[in-house]
Design goal:
The protein is an alpha+beta fold. The chain contains seven helices and eight strands, in the order αααβββββααββαβα. The protein has one domain. The strands form two sheets. It has a six-stranded antiparallel sheet. The longest helix has 14 residues.
């Protein structure tokens, strides 16, 4: 992932675009559509692999749900921001359940909860379920709230630092089993 991120950052700079601006996001969307990185390639970035997750940060990982036999569909490679921790797992926002357009909108709305405005490796979102349930302005989060069990996580966590959130949110890395991505996005949109 580091190589990919470095290439994208260099290209943004070359284009004279400021990260996290609307122009940069539009440019990123067009470029990401041309990229086809693999999940395995992303997970090779050993410098960003973590044994555990931190509330408010963003991660990719491989997952095999306990109740997959009863679920209409699920994501095998979620992009999650954990929001609450439990003894056996955590509650998180899996951004893959909404389309890239809504991912960007949601990240913008959640930026008010960022721990700092530097958007670096120390930045995390300060949110929990109660905040999301009471914040009608972040309605895009509703279909993203999912419960994950530690015993069913099949890899280490690939940490995505805040300066890379936009890029990660636009990558076509979802791996839905049981439904197409377009069907998942359409059903999620019905929830808001």
């Amino acid at each position: 992932m580091a190589y990919l991120i470095d290439r994208i950052k260099a290209s943004l700079a070359k284009e004279g675009l400021t990260p996290r601006s609307n122009q940069a996001r539009a440019w990123l969307q067009s470029k990401v559509a041309q990229l086809r990185p693999t999940r395995a390639a992303l997970m090779r970035d050993r410098n960003k692999l973590r044994e555990s997750s931190v509330i408010g940060k963003m991660y990719f990982y491989f997952y095999d749900p306990k109740t997959k036999d009863t679920m209409p569909y699920y994501d095998r490679f979620p992009l999650v921001i954990p929001i609450e921790s439990y003894n056996d797992g955590f509650l998180g926002l899996n951004l893959h359940y909404i389309s890239p357009k809504y991912r960007m909108t949601l990240l913008d709305k959640l930026s008010v909860t960022a721990s700092n405005k530097t958007y670096d490796e120390r930045t995390r979102l300060r949110l929990n379920y109660k905040y999301l349930a009471n914040a009608s302005r972040v309605f895009e989060a509703t279909p993203c709230i999912k419960r994950y069990l530690y015993g069913h996580i099949q890899s280490r966590f690939l940490e995505i630092t805040a300066d890379e959130w936009d890029i990660a949110a636009l990558l076509p890395m979802e791996s839905f089993v049981g439904a197409s991505t377009s069907k998942v996005h359409a059903e999620s949109q019905e929830q808001f």
